[in-house]
Design brief:
alpha/beta, Spore Coat Polysaccharide Biosynthesis Protein SpsA, Chain A, eleven-stranded mixed β-sheet, two-stranded antiparallel ribbon, 27% helix, globular
């Protein structure tokens, strides 16, 4: 079955202090998304869609786009590569962009920008997260089973495997019953403490404690093209309700999914992963991620170079 991997790479990397999506981090200069692409193609995915800023096209092609287009799918065909652009040109005409607004409108808007590139079931991931080999096999198999409408899937990770010792992280905290997502709460300042606790410190260091095994979303979703109509309606409503003075608000994919579940319009299966998250939320995360990736190469999980 044909399936697309949609990679959200248009973020500005403000906490990281640079364009973390294109920072060489593997032992041979591989960027982090190359591992996800490698894992996805060997799992069965046939297309890669990069969501980027318009000025990133040449850089992305040079870093990995041209090389990926020469790779073969499991059926022996060339992997299809497509570029989608997240900028203000895709915002509906009724909305007046504030002059002070610089950042894109978030992950729901990002996926909507990929609509013209995607006509098959697809997975959505962040460019700056490492998800683990088995997660791509599992989500591909689930995509093969999804009905065309009203259903989606996600890979859930244990909170303890997704935090950073270098600062707070944002995670979609998931409520799950019978392997179905019942609710998702975007939680913006989760922080691990030396005593092993993980707290939400948005309102102070004594905020609520979360169990280490709490399932969270790392924006690893599986959808069918049916979702684009829902995304368009959700983004439209978001903009109509957005006060003009709010120049930083983002339209978030987990929030849209949660609203659709609450209205009974979407059923989301939760696929569990015990993989440890690797990511570069902060520049200080980089050395640990580099060491972890080197260990995976040394263990034979990946070949000596993804660029051979």
């Amino acid at each position: 079955m044909k399936a697309a991997l949609v990679i959200m790479a248009a973020g500005m990397g403000s906490r990281y202090g640079g364009n973390k999506q294109v920072d060489g981090i593997g032992p041979n200069g591989e960027i982090l998304m190359e591992y996800s692409i490698y894992d996805a193609i060997r799992a069965g995915f046939t297309k890669v869609v990069f969501i980027i800023k318009p000025n990133m096209t040449e850089l992305m092609e040079e870093l990995c786009g041209r090389r990926i287009a020469r790779l073969k799918t499991a059926e022996g065909e060339n992997v299809e590569v497509c570029y989608a652009y997240q900028d203000f040109s895709s915002v509906p005409a009724f909305y007046q962009i504030p002059a002070e607004r610089q950042k894109p409108f978030g992950t729901a808007h990002a996926v909507l920008c990929a609509r013209a590139c995607v006509s098959e079931p697809f997975a959505v991931i962040n460019a700056d997260d490492y998800y683990g080999v088995d997660a791509f096999r599992t989500v591909y198999e689930e995509l093969c089973r999804l009905p065309a409408e009203g259903c989606a899937t996600m890979v859930g990770y244990s909170l303890k495997n997704t935090v950073s010792e270098n600062g707070t992280v944002t995670r979609g905290v998931c409520h799950v019953a019978d392997d179905r997502l019942t609710k998702i709460v975007e939680t913006f300042k989760l922080k691990p403490f030396p005593n092993g606790e993980i707290r939400d410190v948005e309102n102070g260091e004594d905020g609520p404690v979360y169990a280490p095994d709490t399932p969270v979303s790392m924006n690893f979703w599986g959808f069918t093209p049916w979702i684009f109509g829902k995304l368009e309606a959700y983004f439209d409503a978001f903009l109509r309700a957005l006060p003009p003075e709010n120049i930083k608000a983002e339209c978030l994919l987990p929030s849209m999914v949660g609203e659709l579940i609450e209205r009974g319009e979407l059923s989301v299966s939760v696929l569990h992963s015990d993989a440890r998250w690797f990511g570069v939320t902060y520049r200080e995360d980089k050395p640990k991620v580099q060491a972890a990736l080197r260990a995976l190469h040394d263990a034979g999980i990946y070949p000596p170079s993804l660029r051979a």
